[in-house]
Structures are given as C-alpha cells and as structure tokens.
Amino acid sequence: MTSNPPNLRPDQAPRARISDAIRAGQPTLGMVSLGCPKALVDSERILTRLRAEGYAISPDYAGADAVIVNTCGFLDSAKAESLDAIGEALAENGRVIVTGCLGAEPDYITGAHPKVLAVTGPHQYEQVLDAVHAAVPPDPDPFVDLLPATGVSLTPRHYSYLKISEGCNHKCKFCIIPDMRGKLVSRPAHAVIREAEKLVEAGVKELLVISQDTSAYGVDIKHAQDRDHRAHITDLARDLGHLGAWVRLHYVYPYPHVRDLIPLMADGLVLPYLDIPFQHAHPDVLRRMARPAAAAKTVDEIAAWRQICPEITLRSTFIVGYPGETEQEFQTLLDWLDDAQLDRVGCFQYENVAGARSNTLPDHVPDEVKQDRWDRFMQKAQAISAAKLEAKIGRRIQVIVDEVDGEAATCRTKSDAPEIDGNLFIDEGFDTLKPGDLVMVEVDEASDYDLWGRRIEG
C-alpha cells in the first residue's frame, strides 16, 4: 500500500499487465511498453493483431522468442529510458524489434544498438507485424488460439483506454509529437462507440478517453455524422455516457466549446474530471511556447465550470524552467496556481528535445534554478492538494476498486485517474471486495495525495 508520489512524469504510462496461457510450441513474444497511455493503446493493438495470428504473449524476457519495445521520444530523458530498455531487452533476450515514437529516428536507435532486428515508427502496425513475421514466423492453431472479444489488454479488466484520434495540429515549440505522429486524424464516431460498447459488454467499468488533443476530436473530418453518431467531443461524450460506465476525459485543451461538456458532468453522464495541459500561466512564456496566452481568462472559465458543476476535479501539467523564464514569470505561475486551485497537478523541468524549436530560444535556465522552481511549485501544489483532500473527510463518495491485497483495498474516487492521481484505501472490511467493484465509502483520513475510508454497506 503506497501513497501517490508528487513527481510523476506526465509522459509516463501505467505499467503493462500481461497474463496469457501459452500452449506447447506456440511462438511467443514479449512486450515492453514505454511512454504515455496513447502508446499503451498502440501496444494493445499490436498484441491483439499478433494474438489473432497465433502468437502467445510472454510476461518475461526468458519465455519470449523475441521482444517488442514500444518506445517514447517525448523528452531526452524519455529517449534515454527507451535506449536503456532496448539495451536491457537485448541483454536479456537478444532478439528485439523496436517501434513507437523514438522509432521515427531509426539511426538514433541503431547507432546505440546496432543489433536490433528492426525499427518501425509510431502506429506503424503493418510494419511491426512484418518485422515479427520475419523474426518469429507464426504458427496458428485455429482450434485453441481464440482471441478474446475485446482483444489483448495491458490494463486491468475493469478499466480501459479508449483512443479517439491520433496526431495533433498544435505547433508547441517544446514538443515534437506532431512531427512523429503527424496531424490530427480522428476515428469515426461510430467506430469509437462500437469499441466502447464491446469493452463495457466485456466488463469494463471505466473508459479513459485519450488522444493528443481530445477537444479537437472530429475537426479534421468536419464533425462527420455516421450511423447516428457525430464526431464531436460533446456528442461523443454524451453517447459514451449512456453506456453505463465511468467516462473520464484526458488531454482536453480549454477551447470555448469545452464549457458544453460541464453540464454532462453535472448530470452524471461523464465523470466530473478534466485533464487539461495548461503548461504555464504567464502570457509571455505561453507565447514563447507557441501556445494560447489567455491564463487570466482561463481562471474565469474555471470559475464558470465550478459554478455549473461544483464537484469538478481539474488536473493539469506544467513546465518550469522554460527558456527565458524569469523569476517574475515563474512567480506569476505560482500566483495563478493559488487563484486556480487545481485539484491534481504534475510538473516537469524543461528539457531540450532533439528537433524541437525551443532548443534555439535564448536564455536557457540553469539546471539548479529549474530544480529550485520545481521544488517550490510542487510544495505549493502539495499544500493545495492536502487542503482539498482534508475537506473531504466525513463525506460519502463512490469509489472503484483497483487492487486488493492482505493490507487493504486500493481504490480510486471519481477524482482520480489510474496511476497518475491519488488513491483511497479501505483497510477494514475489504475481504470480499474485488477489482472493478463500485462501493460507497465514508472518508475518515487524508494525506497530501491520498484518502482512507470505511466501507458503507448497502
């Protein structure tokens, strides 16, 4: 039983969970999935295709005929982590296929690890399959290799990520994701709804809607309507809300039409939770980032959201130490955080990323200053979180159970996304609970990031 750390990296995916029975002689692959939840969905799609062709999925290196490493290229530190993972897979298994965002730079990978079998870029599913076929030929048995209706999942059975689009039309100077994953490409709304229906039918209790820019969903296809479903985030959220599962929205840019989502939250169709990448608050820093510079208006917008839906939880991530950031600009960010009173906050120190336009900006901030600002930012965010959670003591709320062990049931409230937010622990009378259960609790204790509560029967 652990409490939520305050320094989670915003590009970090939940850990993959693999469990698959392997028949004698079945070709077997391992998967290492790095990066954000969007990359985790890519890993699931790759494994689903491979499972359909008769491959088994190994949870360890030793049991695999080859290993696929799905890489991250978001930050230089993430690239280094990807290279380390590739090196570990080579050392432990020897036969490695690389895919994902860092795969857009094949020379960078092969320069460090020339023995990899193949390198493919992000969401290049066919190329990954071709590389696997060449390394480990398939040997399907149609009588026993049955694919579950929901495909292969790397998350617990009671929640699932639902990717609604790929790519991004923004041109933020610190980010190279659009260069790697391309411009916005939205999935047809009916396809998203059908996938969600299948997941709910299979027992999924929570759908986590993800993309690079969820608010822009459908813009590229002119919000096309097909089979009674319109490709617009408001319509999609409403349709998903009628499926009976929790619906959580991630990576929502604060466009004006986002306010149309708030009544859906007030009505209980969608969880009262918005994950919004604000990144900073000072208008000059936002301009240097090539992001919309309307932080003051955003505070007013947040107040309007809370007036419509007082229970709304707001999560965001920020960058400190961006090139040119002055002490006064950083203080503006701290003051803005006081005004906005966000519920869940992540922060990372600026890093140069190969190919990013921010690398050439003047006045880069020294590492020691970035560390100091990160410490001060997280201290303020921690105090806000602690006060908000303390105010929940005595309240009765619904939670979803994620894990049960000998010490407690680890749960989440509607305010907590898996792996990145806090937990609520039930440490008495939890013996009969199991993952996916929805139960009522009364909160009786709070820390900086987590809650404890007792189960309420009935």
TrEMBL record:
UniProt xrefs under Pfam families: Radical_SAM, TRAM_2, UPF0004
Ribosomal protein in keyword set: yes
Domain (TRAM): residue spans on this chain: 390-457
Enzyme class: transferase
List of residues binding [4Fe-4S] cluster 1: C36, C72, C101
GO molecular function, one term: protein methylthiotransferase activity
Superkingdom, natural source: Bacteria
Reactions that this protein is recorded to catalyse: L-aspartate(89)-[ribosomal protein uS12]-hydrogen + (sulfur carrier)-SH + AH2 + 2 S-adenosyl-L-methionine = 3-methylsulfanyl-L-aspartate(89)-[ribosomal protein uS12]-hydrogen + (sulfur carrier)-H + 5'-deoxyadenosine + L-methionine + A + S-adenosyl-L-homocysteine + 2 H(+)
Keywords: 4Fe-4S, Cytoplasm, Iron, Iron-sulfur, Metal-binding, Ribonucleoprotein, Ribosomal protein, S-adenosyl-L-methionine, Transferase
Cross-referenced CDD domains: Radical_SAM (cd01335)
Free-text comment on the cofactor: Binds 2 [4Fe-4S] clusters. One cluster is coordinated with 3 cysteines and an exchangeable S-adenosyl-L-methionine.
Subcellular location: Cytoplasm
Domain annotation Radical SAM core: ranges: 154-387
Obligatory cofactor(s): [4Fe-4S] cluster
Record-linked PANTHER family: RIBOSOMAL PROTEIN S12 METHYLTHIOTRANSFERASE RIMO (PTHR43837), RIBOSOMAL PROTEIN US12 METHYLTHIOTRANSFERASE RIMO (PTHR43837:SF1)
Purpose: Catalyzes the methylthiolation of an aspartic acid residue of ribosomal protein uS12.
Protein name: Ribosomal protein uS12 methylthiotransferase RimO
Organism: Parasulfitobacter algicola
